[in-house]
Amino acid sequence: DRQTLVAVLQFLRRSNLRESEEILRREARLLGDDLGAAALSPASAGLLGGSGSDADSGEALLGRGTGAAAVAIGGNVATVATSSPGVAAVAAVPPGKGEARGECGAGPFSRREPREAGSRVLLAASGALPSAGTQGSVSGVVAVEDQPDVSAVLSAYNQQGDPTLYEEYYSGLKHFIECSLDCHRAELSQLFYPLFVHMYLELVYNQHESEAKSFFERFHGDQECYYQDDLRVLSSLTKKEHMKGNETMLDFRTSKFVLRISRDSYQLLKRHLQEKQNNQIWNIVQEHLYIDIFDGMPRSKQQIDAMVGSLAGEAKREANKAKVFFGLLKEPEFDVPLDDEDEEGENEEGKPKKKKPKKDNVGSKSKKQDPNAPPQNRIPLPELKDSDKLDKVMNMKEAARRVRLGPECLPSICFYTFLNAYQGLTAVDITDDSSMIVGGFADSTVRVWSVTPKKLRSVKTAADLSLIDKESDDVLERIMDEKTASELKILYGHSGPVYGTSFSPDRNYLLSCSEDGTVRLWSLQTFTCLVGYKGHNYPVWDTQFSPYGYYFVSGGHDRVARLWATDHYQPLRIFAGHLADVTCTRFHPNSNYIATGSADRTIRLWDVLNGNCVRIFTGHKGPIHSLAFSPNGRFLATGATDGRVLLWDIGHGLMVGELKGHTDTIYALRFSRDGEILASGSMDNTVRLWDAVKAFEDLETDDFTTATGHINLPENSQDLLLGTYMTKSTPVVHLHFTRRNLLLAAGAYSSQ
Q1: CB atoms within 10 A of CB 639
Q2: At a CB cut-off of 8 Å and minimum separation 6, what does 477 contact?
Q3: Structural domain spans, the chain
Q4: With 0-12 CB in 10 A as exposed, 13-18 as middle and 19+ as buried, what is 25?
Q5: d(CA 691, CA 689)
Q6: What is the pLDDT of residue 718?
Q7: What does the DSSP assignment read for 404-431?
Q8: CA 273 to CA 283: how far, in whole Å?
């Protein structure tokens, strides 16, 4: 704050340290209130112990000798021990916890600098300076590493040791870890893969090609099986020139690989590296790894295996601490006209009709506001039209006849097989009321079928419409042109395979996204294209409408997801953070959040309001291809190429279940309407049904689990499996529960 700044400047002037004073003035103006940079620059050595009696007056301010100054790095508070003038060792401590993040000793190991993207650096010392928690002390944020320049990123590999010793260093560490106690071995084994990659890249960058080759051949077989694909990419990088264009490796370099290790294991590792004077490995640990240290028992091999496997290690625990409003929005209230005609038909046998207690307004189903729900007006949602209200009424009538599912009462499954789909079926969607099904094809067409006896009709031409009496009761019927009625409509417009399709909730619109980089909005009244949204430069893999309509999301090869509104030709939000293609996207039932799955093997949850990433889930061993939120909004199910379905508690940010059984990529996941059953469909030609109630009951989400991420998954998920249904030779690409809980599945028959 200002007073401190003035005090420090006066002290510098009294000590005749004009140069430092100038620097501090410049820094202060440049960074607003972020003054820590000045404190850490060597020119202001006067701050860390001056000379004579003037220095003593500064002691209260800046604690000379063994005093300490605190520097906040990226939201963590770090202590700068100023044991001797000019040497600063930084240990990061998260706010409110006495827990060090990265520590440094003296000598060769004190190379830790506060270099985190968007670091906030502020200075506070024992005595007169304000504490790190003072409000308003941090305003300007310095973006240090936002868009890394390729050459700058790679040049970090310059200051290197003897290339012939790399194998010795690595095998020495390997021997040490393999001989350590079982409880530490599992945790420290996580170091093998990131160290292997960085040491190999270092050798390649410094043009020690033969050493790099022999290093790769000797140790690549030791890495976990789920890193095989990454190692294949790595093995093709054999020259310095190859590294410039390779995005995957550039990401690996710029994003710190996150390891979660207990304090005991970390101390063991640190002691070993210091005794061996193994600077090479220690430098890599300091430069390229983020070690998230926790207090308590080390994790077991099973616990670690469940969580690792993504491109950049695990998620930092801090990443999953933000509050998420996962509750549902209150349904709007409106009166429902009750008619009994539909019940008459069901009593042919002359039984007396059962009197049902008449509800006044079925529309007011959820009177109470969900405590975890976002405020109703947190994001602007479209108003309900009369047709929407009518649809809600229909929905409620259907819901009254819904079958209650459970282990004793499994749903019937109706499978739509696309035969002779030589065009290559690449995407399917079914409307909420199950009246239409759409297929996206590799020949760039979008085909819409009616699956009810009612045929698809277009609106009449403008000339014919002008002849209609607009006041008549059946005006909505009259505007339709019977001559156009057919079961199938084909929509032409894309110039590449169509990878994603989505119906709007009101069934008036259809979205499709394609390899051509566009998302198209089609009218289901005229069966023509209304808009082409151009924002992605590369193939768009998935798109989905918000459950309230109007908004939609798309994700693609350019690694970002975009939020759009149908009436804007530019995206409203761009969600950037994934390290590889965004392969699938899903809206949360309350429309305030979007989940994205990626080929970097992580799932992220984004806040629509401000574009922030509020959850990062790691644990899959392959690209994510399906996402499903539970109807109550509390849980998320994800499926990937590793054939596992993982279950996540959104509120606590924890993995709470793992469903094993599929033997191939899971392309479809869907919860039943009341959330009792989770259905999964896979390339292994099966649909499997899982007991969702049992999977989510009595979860251990106590504070300790949340704090350390020690999850205890049941050994066997077979007792959650309620049924497996084989198709003859049809991979399942889409699943949908009707309003009465009949399960619809879809896929294209493959002859091989």
Answers
A1: 27
A2: none
A3: 163-314, 413-700+717-748
A4: middle
A5: 7
A6: 82
A7: --BTTBPPPEEEEEETT-TT-EEEEEE-
A8: 10
Q: How confident is the model at residue 285 (pLDDT cuts 50, 70, 90)?
A: confident
CA-wise closest residue to 538 among 511, 519, 565, 563: 519
CA distances from residue 327 to 241, 604, 691 in whole angstroms, order as listed: 51, 18, 22
Query: Which conformational region is residue 703 in: left (phi greater than 0), alpha (psi within -120 to 50 degrees), or beta?
Result: alpha
Q: What mean pLDDT do residues 716-745 have?
A: 91
How many helices (H) and strands (E) the chain has is answered by 21, 35
Q: Is 65 left (phi over 0), alpha (psi -120 to 50) or beta?
A: left
Residue 502: its pLDDT value, please?
96
Please give the Cα distance from 510 to 493 (Å, whole number). Answer: 13
Task: Give the pLDDT confidence of 458-495 residue by residue, as tens digits.
Answer: 888 888 888 887 777 777 788 888 888 899 999 999 99
- Give the pLDDT mean for 665-684: 94
Residue 117 CB contacts under 8 Å (≥ 6 apart), including other chains: 74, 143, 144, 145, 146
Select from 415, 383, 337 the least CA-distant residue to 725.
Answer: 415
Q: Is 308 exposed, middle or buried (0-12, 13-18, 19+ CB in 10 A)?
A: buried
Q: What is the pLDDT, as a whole number, of residue 160?
A: 60
Indicate the length of the chain as a whole number.
752
Alpha carbon 347 to its chain centroid, in Å, reads: 52
Residues 6 or more apart from 115 whose CB is under 8 A from it?
144, 145
Half-sphere exposure of 60 (CA within 13 A, CB side): 7
Indicate the fold that domain 163-314 takes in CATH. Answer: 1.25.40
**Residue 599's pLDDT is what?**
93
152: left (phi over 0), alpha (psi -120 to 50) or beta: alpha
Which long-range contacts link 147-154 to residues 24+ away (Cβ below 8 Å)? 148/250, 148/253, 148/254, 150/244, 150/250, 151/244, 153/250, 153/253, 153/254, 154/205, 154/243, 154/244, 154/253
CATH 3.90.180.10 fits domain 413-700+717-748: no
Task: Match 């509390």 to its residue by tokens.
Answer: 634
List, for residues 536-594, the tens digit of each pLDDT value.
989 999 999 999 999 999 999 999 999 999 999 999 999 999 989 999 999 999 999 99
Sheet holding 528-534, edge to edge: 498-503, 509-514, 518-523, 528-534
Contact 682, 666 (CB under 8 A): yes
Which of 237-246, 360-369, 664-673 has the highest average model confidence (pLDDT)? Answer: 664-673
Query: CA-to-CA distance for 67 and 62, rounded, in angstroms?
Result: 7
Mean pLDDT across the stretch 508-527? 94
Q: Which one is predicted more confidently, 686 or 246?
A: 686
> How much is the mean pLDDT over the chain?
77
Q: Enumerate residues 6+ apart whose C-beta is below 8 A from 526.
A: 458, 459
Locate 244 and state its tokens. 């410039």
Q: How many beta carbons lie within 10 A of that of residue 616, not counting itself?
A: 20
With 0-12 / 13-18 / 19 or more C-beta atoms within 10 angstroms meaning exposed / middle / buried, residue 391 is middle
- Looking up tokens 């947190």, which residue turns up? 378
